[in-house]
Amino acid sequence: MDARVALLHLWTALVLLTAKLKWIDATEVYTNTWAVQINGGAEEADRIAREHGFINHGNVFGDYYHFRHHAVEKRAVSGHSGMHIRLQKEPQVLWAEQQVVKKRTKRDIYEDPTDPDFPKQWYLTTPSHQDLNTKIAWAQGYTGKGVVVTILDDGIEKDHPDLISNY
């Protein structure tokens, strides 16, 4: 009976841990970097960064700069509002935002052909991938232009209505 209770406790812990990981995965993860818009040029950006303990990683574009703070956690589930408020109090800082981790997702660049009969050609692409790899070939730029296909079949039905006049 003790083994069953221990197994039940272990199972409960696993379920709770899985639920917590899913919750953390769904929340934003803040980094120790900020995007900052500063009026006054690179010298002013360097001064503000130095004064507040940031490292200025340089100009991104226009008057936007990339700051990193060594004393802020590299990854955290909550933003560092104290550092953010101090930056915002600077008169030359027009805008600041603590950066969050963005999840990357692979995108498929393939688009179905514009041929109106393509959906009827089920054998060219199937969900079970038992197809002719046409999507891969088309993505590589192969079109079939200039290709001649010959089918040799020695089992021709010479009496078939489609063939009888040409046989």
Question: How would you sum up this structure, described in words?
Answer:
- The structure is a single chain.
- This protein is of the alpha+beta class and 167 residues long.
- 31% of the residues lie in helices and 20% in strands.
- It is built from four helices and five strands.
- Strands 1, 2, 3, 4 and 5 form a five-stranded antiparallel β-sheet that branches.
- A hairpin with a 2-residue loop joins strand 2 (54-61) and strand 3 (64-69).
- The protein is elongated.
- It starts with a helix and ends in a 28-residue tail after the last helix.
- The mean pLDDT is 81.
Provide a compact summary of the structure.
31% of the residues lie in helices and 20% in strands.
SSE layout and pairing:
Elements: H1 2-26, E1 30-38, H2 41-51, E2 54-61, E3 64-69, E4 75-76, H3 81-89, E5 93-100, H4 134-139
Antiparallel strand pairs: 1-3, 1-4, 1-5, 2-3
Assembly form of the protein: single chain
| Helical run tally | 4
Approximate shape = elongated
What gap, in angstroms, lies between the N and C termini?
A: 83 Å
**SSE pattern:** HEHEEEHEH
Question: How many strands?
Answer: 5
Unreliable stretches covering 5 or more consecutive residues: none
Strand content: 15-25%
Q: Whole-number radius of gyration? A: 32 Å
Structural class: alpha+beta
The helicity comes to 25-40%
How does the major sheet shape up? Answer: 5 strands, antiparallel
Mean pLDDT: 81
Protein name: Peptidase S8 pro-domain domain-containing protein
Domain Peptidase S8 pro-domain: 33-107
Signal peptide: 1-26
Family: Belongs to the peptidase S8 family.
